[in-house]
Design goal:
Elements: H1 3-15, H2 19-40, H3 44-83
Helix pairs in contact: 1-3, 2-3
Length: 84
């Protein structure tokens, strides 16, 4: 396999990093949060659930950032191969 071919395969791998899954999950949680508020109103139970959803959303942000970092590192490796 040539260096060019390796670089192309690395680019393809970078495109396979599932960054969209984290963002889609966060969107679903936001929808759930709205539904919980609609069902329970401004109650302590709704507030507790919303707190859990917000914590999960923050963790999803961390996962999304980590996945993006993976994608960038793979793309950087591809560029390094092309320059090398």
């Amino acid at each position: 396999m040539t260096i060019q071919e390796q670089a192309q395969q690395l680019e393809q791998l970078a495109d396979q990093v599932p960054t969209g899954i984290a963002l889609a999950t966060k969107s679903e949680l936001a929808d759930l949060q709205s539904q919980v508020l609609g069902l329970l109103g401004e109650t302590s139970t709704a507030t507790a659930i919303q707190g859990s959803i917000q914590l999960a959303s923050q963790q999803i942000d961390d996962v999304a950032a980590a996945l993006e970092n993976v994608r960038i590192q793979i793309k950087d490796a591809a560029q390094h191969h092309l320059q090398g």
